[in-house]
From TrEMBL:
One of its GO terms (biological process) is mitotic spindle midzone assembly. Residues 1-42 form the Phorbol-ester/DAG-type domain. GO terms for molecular function: GTPase activator activity; metal ion binding. PROSITE patterns: RHOGAP (PS50238), ZF_DAG_PE_2 (PS50081). It comes from the Eukaryota. GO terms for cellular component: centralspindlin complex; cleavage furrow; midbody; nucleus; spindle midzone. InterPro entries: C1-like_sf (IPR046349), PKC_DAG/PE (IPR002219), Rho_GTPase_activation_prot (IPR008936), RhoGAP_dom (IPR000198). This is RGAP1 protein.
Amino acid sequence: VIRPQPCGICGSRIRFGKAAVRCRQCQLLLHPKCREQCPLSCVPRPHHHAWPREGVLADFAPATPPLVPALVVQCVTEVEMRGLTETGLYRVPGTEQLVREWKQRLLQAGGALPALSSVTDIHVVCGVLKDFLRGLKEPLVTFGLHPAFLRAADIPDAAACATALCHMVSKLPPANRDTLAFLMLHLLRVSHSPDCKMDILNLSRVFGPTLVGHASANPTPLVIMEDTPRQCKVVAQLLSLPPDFWRGFLGPEQENLVPV
């Protein structure tokens, strides 16, 4: 190895000067010791299958429903496996450098994601998920539907508010809708964990700016100030919708997706 690269099986870095094994077909790179854990068969992966550095959510989504990017699935799966006893989940920041490194590693891997089990600090995994969502060209609540989501969340009657929000969710692009449903069910499980101490209000403060964002890519300081409390309100209202509404977009076996 001349340039250090992550092992495609365990995810840890293969250092300069060390021996490595690379598949001639799919170009998977791994430690020699990880060879026994490597799948027996592989599919050649053209370079254009790698994810872009930035894009809208659909650019990262799989070809078949539910249209939830593998990166989102893997981060959520890892958090639910070992993070639901962590206080301040998603509020406590992970080490910024590690978050950047792992996000880049996952984006470069495309569909063949390295395991996140080697990331010791679960807050780093949370940081990768938040940073991925923040880095999209357009938030999950799209620029075009942003004003309508804010208006729906402002409806004072609870039943009418829920009806309006359900209608707006159904108008989202399929990848945005499925991913939002997957995240809402995950955040509800986080909110129900007494150890996390992250209720719906806390989670809405963390994820409001990330999921709802603004109506344009370059908001003015005044718009940012005005939007922030309304973003949180939208996420809080979305988390108040019945879980069965969100499950309807994923199917019973796909609520807890396991990355392939």
